[in-house]
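Collaborator request, handled under Task 6.
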Amino acid sequence: MKTFATLLFAAITSFASLVQSSDSHPNSLVQVRVVRVDLQQVTSDYIRFAMVMRIKSSHSARLRRIRFSEMRWGSLPFFLSPIEEKVHLTPGEDLILPPIPVTFYFRDLDTLQPLEDSLRNQEITVSGRARAELDLSPLERIALLQWSGQFEIPVQSSFPLTVPGGQLGRTAAIASVRASELALALGGSALNLVRTEQMDRADEVNRLYRSALVVAEYRYAVMLRDGQRIDFKGKSLGFLLKPNKVLLTAETVEPWKYDSDVASLLESKQARLV
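Structure tokens returned to the collaborator:
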């Protein structure tokens, strides 16, 4: 038993030293970066791009998925679909991920100028956050204090925008965006009416429910049988029903039940809830 404990300690120490040698922060194990963006289509209602990204890991691991939040195209917020690619990451090697579609609907934007500037300059700056989920062994998770295998990664990069058709294609794309900008400014246009109705509804919902919307933060910890403590925290939205009553999701109230890894540890008595 003593020999096993010694080997276990040595394995954890060895992996921990690998983490520290790559960087002082565990998130340095994984890097996500945008490589380029290709223009795909411009219509009177929307503009669509394809975003190509790469992921790099300093440790051999299997990628489960990547989710994105707080993404901005210059000053414009946008949604980026999760990457559900289960692939093996080789240490030190760049892995190019399949293109992700990015669509901007003009009716949702206050201005199209940032899109026009991107087309004219053929360069984009994207910022936000990525959450990479990796398959790691129990020893690696303990050494990283990341039992869930999730890594928060800042995304901040400037890169080229590829427009098909060369100068002629770029000029045509800019003209299409300008025409849509003009349509948004015309009070009698159908597009502007739709956009105005949506903004009015959003203002009404905001006026009625803003005072009741709350952000809830949960924190908990589990203690492994060897005395190792692992802390968890997260945030979610809720509604204030009364001064002393808040409506929250079950996952916010008892989050350990909705994390399969933590639930398995607790059920097998390998850990206890703090």
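The cover message to the collaborator said: "The mean pLDDT is 76. The chain has two domains: 2-185, 211-273. Please let us know whether this matches your experimental observations."
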